[in-house]
Write a structure and sequence with these properties.
This protein is of the alpha/beta class. The chain has two domains: 5-86 and 134-246, Rossmann fold (3-Layer(aba) Sandwich), CATH 3.40.50.2000; 255-460, Glycogen Phosphorylase B (Rossmann fold). The protein is 48% helix and 17% strand. The protein has helices spanning 39-50, 65-78, 89-108, 119-139, 156-162, 180-183, 189-197, 207-220, 253-259, 263-276, 294-307, 329-349, 366-375, 390-398, 415-418, 430-442, 445-461, 464-487, 495-508, and strands at residues 13-19, 22-27, 30-35, 54-58, 82-84, 145-149, 169-172, 201-204, 225-228, 232-237, 240-246, 280-287, 315-322, 357-361, 378-381, 405-409, 423-425. The strands form three sheets. A nine-stranded mixed sheet has the order 5-4-1-6-7-8-11-10-9, sandwiched between helices. The chain has a six-stranded parallel sheet with strand order 14-13-12-15-16-17, sandwiched between helices. Bound molecules: GDP-alpha-D-glucose. Residues 37-38, 174-175, 249, 285, 287, 320, 322, 363-364, 366, 369, 386-391, 394 line the site of GDP-alpha-D-glucose.
């Protein structure tokens, strides 16, 4: 169901992301194309379709005539316009696995020790970003809004500007943005920061990310004039003004809330509860990624079993680790570490009929996933750093009886919104996380219900549809302001005045407060 009415205009939306919103898989020797899952696709696909827009991305496999044909048929069948960017094997190695996932990904998650900075990766990253820009130039029409997603495509605006595209360009970063002390280690930091400043609107997940970006920009380019409003900052770069905001991404609340109540899911949940035979079931769901803090989680759980013997036989951790980026050695290493840890902890504590960890290394269907959410009464999500962490929100939306506790890392973007109803932990603090597990286990129903109600109403109020509408209206608002100052350059208010009035507006509307980046 399309819950967003893109009311204000009929302008086409061009969405650009590394991957197309479909998955192409081989089954019995034949390739199949299926719509992608996930909140972002659910929220954006109808807008792209209804505005007769385009979604540009890499199909995730070689663009053979067979794959092209699949995409063509999919477009006809679904009245969609997917346009595929072809990447060679070498481009996948250097741009995707190399620069995106061995340099930017760990750097943006504060994990400098995992970073590999290779000149050849950078060269290919630039070339692929140019390739995406060329594809956009082929597809774009006058008046289109262009929205580019994530760390793989930071330089696209730079190349579009070189190609004389003067359309409004927006960017959203799904990962965190690091502080300047970390960013400055990147040999190409000024190109990455400059690339972001070629957009008109840059969106981050949290206020912290927005501040990190503004402070880094100011450190690298002291000539920039940056002013912070309550809801966004304005960076004046030469004659241009770039709007920088924080827009915490979310999920389709109803999909999880309603889905969790269907019979098949209830059956799945009872099956799991019967299998695990524990009073309390605790859940971890993550892509298998070193940023998700899974080893730290296992060690904290082990400590809890050691410190609180009452937990033994009464609690079980169900850990779903979804295979991801398995061509990279860091991901192979973490997989081995986890398998070894599960064996050790289970060997140490298991009793006949009870095992402390159930570890599953594969992806599951949406129904099974909902079954996990329904069956478990504790969500244990301990990323070392995470842009948002949608699993935390999905767990809350699926806990329809309010009988659940969320233990959440303070380094997940979601903590900015969910701290009030969750038990917050520092995943590096094993003792604190172990105590949090015990506290969640012992928590009375009344307190569980009170905290879960807070969490669920937050996720319900700020769902993915609100996020899209908020981002796009912020984009259009900025465009209008820019156009107004171009038409009446002498009338354009100095930035300072606008700071004042914007703060006043946010105070009047109940926003309150402001901060400055400089
Ligand atoms: C990036 C940022 C940010 C997981 N396993 C299965 C499955 N999933 C789905 C979950 C959830 C999604 O994958 C994971 O989202 P996260 O937000 O937790 O993490 P990342 O994949 O790292 O996403 C992150 C996000 O972008 C959005 O901006 O929040 O910080 O790193 O939706 O449900 N779905 C199914 N089977 C599985 O086995 N069906």
């Amino acid at each position: 169901m399309n819950k967003i009415t893109w009311r204000r205009s009929k302008r086409r939306l061009l969405v650009v992301s590394n991957r197309l919103p479909v998955s192409i898989k081989s089954s019995e020797g034949r390739r199949e194309i299926r719509p992608g899952a996930g909140g972002l696709v659910t929220a954006l696909a109808p807008i792209v379709r209804n505005t007769r827009g385009v979604w540009i991305g890499w199909p995730g496999c070689e663009l053979t005539p067979e794959v092209l044909e699949l995409i063509r048929n999919y477009n006809i069948e679904k009245s969609f316009d997917l346009q595929a960017v072809n990447l060679t094997e070498e481009e996948v190695q250097n741009y995707y696995l190399g620069f995106s996932n061995e340099a930017l990904w760990p750097l943006f998650h504060d994990l400098l020790g995992q970073c590999m900075f290779e000149g050849v990766h950078w060269e290919v990253y630039k070339n692929v970003n140019r390739k995406f820009a060329e594809k956009i130039v082929e597809a774009v029409q006058p008046g289109d809004l262009i929205w580019i997603h994530d760390y793989h495509l930071i330089l696209v605006a730079h190349y579009l500007r070189q190609m004389n595209v003067d359309h409004p360009l927006a960017f959203f970063l799904h990962t965190p943005f690091p502080g300047y002390d970390l960013l400055r280690r990147l040999p190409w930091k000024d190109r990455i920061l400059g690339g972001l400043l070629d957009f008109d609107l840059v969106g981050f997940q949290t206020l912290r990310d927005r501040r990190n970006f503004c402070r880094s920009a100011k450190e690298l380019m002291p000539e920039l004039y940056i002013k912070a409003f309550y809801r966004h900052s304005i960076v004046r770069h030469g004659r241009r003004e770039i709007k920088v905001g924080n827009f915490p991404i979310s999920i389709d609340f109803s999909e999880f809330n309603d889905g969790a109540q269907i019979e098949e899911v209830e059956r799945e949940a009872s099956f799991l509860r019967n299998k695990c035979q524990s009073r309390s079931l605790m859940l971890g769901v993550d892509r298998l990624d070193y940023t998700k803090g899974i080893p730290e989680r296992f060690l904290a759980y082990e400590r809890a079993l050691e410190k609180y013997p009452e937990l033994r036989g009464n609690i079980c951790l169900l850990q779903l680790a979804v295979p991801s980026r398995s061509h990279l050695s860091a991901y192979q290493d973490i997989r081995e570490t986890l398998e070894w840890m599960v064996g050790r902890i289970n060997g140490r504590f298991s009793e006949f009929g009870w095992q402390p960890i159930q570890y599953i290394y594969r992806s599951v269907s949406r129904t099974e996933l909902l079954g996990f959410y329904r069956a478990c009464d504790i969500g244990l999500l301990t990323p070392l750093r995470d842009g948002m962490n949608l699993v935390a929100k999905e767990f809350c939306a699926s806990t329809v009886d309010n009988n659940g506790v969320l233990i959440l890392s303070e380094f997940a973007g979601a903590s900015e919104q969910l701290a009030k109803g969750a038990i917050m932990v520092n995943p590096y603090n094993r003792e604190e996380t172990a105590d949090a597990i015990y506290r969640a286990y012992k928590m009375e129903l009344e307190e569980r219900e009170r905290m879960m109600t807070v969490l669920r109403s937050e996720v319900k109020r700020n769902d993915i549809f609100r996020w899209v509408e908020w981002f796009l209206s912020s984009f259009r608002e900025h465009e209008r302001e820019e156009a107004a100052s171009e038409i009446h350059p002498n009338n354009s208010k100095p930035v300072n005045d606008r700071v004042e009035s914007s703060i006043m507006e946010s105070i009047k509307s109940g926003g309150g407060g402001s901060y400055t980046d400089d």
